[in-house]
Design a protein that fits this description.
This protein is α/β, with parallel strands linked by helices. It is about 45% helix and about 15% strand. Strands 1, 2, 3, 4, 5, 6, 7, 8 and 9 form a 9-stranded mixed beta sheet that branches. Helix 1 runs antiparallel to helix 4. It is globular. Bound molecules: phosphoenolpyruvate and magnesium ion. The site of magnesium ion has 5 residues, from helix 18. Phosphoenolpyruvate (PEP) binds next to strand 11 and helix 18.
């Protein structure tokens, strides 16, 4: 069986699939050896018993506190828990299909929901929420037990097959055991894809129903270059993929040899190549691939690992500066949604346009203050730059700067050491900001264009929705025209402008950006050697002319064809080392 999606992180992985379903807790679907099934049934029964004890305790507490009448609600749940259709059926599935208890429960849940949906009695129909509650409790008891798999404790090197991975799940993940990632949803600019790329782990997104179709433990080949997931491949197919993988690994090694060479074009234009990072450990990868600094540290990923007080953040930012010295570290201020703050707010009807990042300042001032304090203090130790995301224009930027200045004043009053002059930058990812850089230039020390969001907002295409992935076209004439205008405005005002969206790490698109004037490109560290090869082989004056001509064409496809023909020599360098 072959499933097709979008290759979002190149490379080939061959290994066993670990399928993860997300209920309220992640559910793995495992095939057990026949002699392990009785132990698994016992594990299930222990979780059911623990759930019963918990429900009885809740019921008696409620009877004490609000009267027996309300406590009866839990009788329905206790009855469900003991019902043969739930407990015995789940045990039967474990015995017959040799699957783990979590997966058996999931199947029972589907069967019982189908039954409940068929009821005509409204009262009975409504009990399906009690069913979810009961099953969720048993599941939590199962996963809470020390012997089940979890994201932080994977059974071995696996190709993780998941619907998606949230930032907090990605933070928890045992990355050392993940050799490939297959996602039902997502696209190239989806955060999990970005993470996989930055760790050099092959990934395919947009596979739609891989979690439903890949059998547990199946041998799979994940081809992140072509966007394929082959399930139980034949021996000749497998041999073909292994040869391809070796060739890719050889090419990777030869590209890494350019680590210390500068990225300067043939006509002498120097472009700084920096790394995007989500976790502190990635600084080492950035150095390994020759990054000249961190151009975007997506700090919000830190929150997936629990809340961080000022002291721990300060130490972490100082450590990043140490690792990257003498190069700069650009930390983006929390780019969060309402669901990420404590107490969590309701999620927005349209999260891409709702309250996020500094729009949440009023709701969570302490979270922002703590981060800015840690940043200002760390900036005394090295070239740290503060980057504000998701600003519409000058008024938003002024508000951000005022908050930063007030935080610096507090530090000064308390006698804390901190940097007085910290470069303050702004992400250019909302079209209104891109269109008004001339007005913004006096107020920002630098700009960093976030093409991932900029494209999504310009073209009205959700970057995380695979159903519209084909419409997400970075080379659309409107995108190029807005980018060209932004570079021109920033250039006229003498403000440096870089790019930290995924366009920066694509060979052709990096030439477009450098041609239009970007002198700093920040990308997944593993993309750096390849982009360096391309830039070193390019004449940026020629690239500029080619882009300005191509921009007048009317579609992304025509623009791409034109540019590929014009820039084919430099692009061929991206494949250098391929044997
Ligand atoms: C962007 O929007 O281009 C960007 C770099 O930020 P993120 O991908 O984290 O939204
Ligand atoms: Mg963004």
């Amino acid at each position: 069986m072959e499933l097709l999606g979008n290759g979002v992180s190149p490379g080939i992985a061959v290994g066993q699939a670990l399928v993860m379903e997300r209920e309220r807790v992640p559910v793995f679907r495992l095939l057990l050896p026949p002699d392990a099934t009785e132990r698994e049934v016992q594990r299930l029964l222990r979780a059911v018993a623990a759930s019963r004890r918990q429900l009885e305790a809740i019921k008696s507490r409620l009877s004490r506190e609000v009267g027996a009448l309300h406590a009866y609600i839990f009788d329905a749940q206790l009855l469900m828990l003991e019902d043969p259709l739930l407990r015995d059926r789940a045990a039967q599935i474990v015995r017959q299909e040799h699957v783990n208890a979590e997966w058996a429960l999931r199947q029972v849940s589907e069967q019982l929901h189908a039954l409940f949906d068929g009821f005509t009695d409204e009262y009975l129909k409504e009990r399906s929420s009690d069913l979810d509650d009961v099953l969720g409790r048993v599941l939590l008891n199962l996963v809470g037990a020390a012997d089940g798999p979890s994201l932080a404790r994977l059974p071995g090197p696996v190709v993780l097959v998941a619907h998606d991975l949230t930032p907090s799940e990605a933070a928890e993940l045992d990355w050392a055991k993940v050799i490939g990632i297959a996602l039902d949803g997502g696209s190239r600019t989806y955060h999990t894809a970005i993470l996989a790329r930055s760790r050099g782990i092959p990934a395919v997104a947009g596979l739609r129903d891989a979690t439903g179709r890949v059998p547990p433990g199946a041998l799979v080949v994940l081809d992140g270059t072509q966007g394929r997931l082959v399930v139980e491949p034949s021996e000749p197919v497998l041999a073909g993929f292994r040869a391809l993988r070796e060739r890719e690994q050889r090419r990777e090694l030869s590209l890494q040899a350019t680590r210390t060479e500068p990225a300067a074009s043939r006509d002498g234009v120097r472009v700084r190549l920096l790394a995007n990072a989500e976790f502190a450990e990635e600084a080492a990868t950035a150095v390994q691939y020759g990054a000249e600094g961190i151009g975007l540290f997506r700090s919000e990923y830190l929150l997936g690992r629990g809340s961080l007080d000022e002291e721990r953040q300060y130490e972490l930012y100082c450590r990043l500066l140490d690792q990257m010295a003498p190069h700069p570290v650009t930390v983006r201020v929390w780019d969060l949604g309402p669901e990420d703050i404590v107490p969590a707010g309701p999620s927005s009807p349209n999260p891409a346009l709702g309250p996020r990042a500094l729009r949440l300042l009023g709701r969570a001032p302490d979270a922002f203050r703590t981060q800015l304090r840690a940043l200002l203090r760390a900036a005394a130790h090295g070239p740290l730059r503060v980057l504000f995301p998701f600003l519409r224009g000058a008024s938003d930027l002024r508000e951000a700067r005022a908050f930063l200045a007030a935080t610096a004043r507090d530090l000064a009053l308390e006698g804390h050491g901190h940097a007085v002059e910290v470069p303050v930058g702004m992400m250019v990812e909302i079209p209104s900001a891109a269109l008004t850089l001339a007005q913004l230039a006096p107020e920002a020390d630098f700009f960093s264009v976030g093409t991932n969001d900029l494209i999504q907002y310009l073209l009205a295409v959700d970057r995380a929705d695979p159903r519209v992935a084909a419409l997400y076209e970075p080379l659309d004439p409107a995108v190029l025209s807005v980018l060209a205008g932004a570079f021109e405005q920033a250039g006229a005002a003498g403000r440096p402008v870089g790019v930290c969206g995924e366009m920066a790490g694509d060979p052709l698109q990096s030439l477009v950006l450098a041609g239009l004037g970007a002198r700093e490109l920040s990308m997944s560290p593993t993309a750096i050697p390849r982009i360096k090869q391309v830039l070193r082989a390019a004449d940026l004056g020629h690239a500029r002319e080619a882009v300005l001509r191509a921009m007048r064409l009317s579609s992304a496809a025509e623009i791409e064809a034109h540019l590929r023909a014009e820039l084919h020599e430099a692009l061929a360098a991206a494949d250098a080392g391929e044997s």
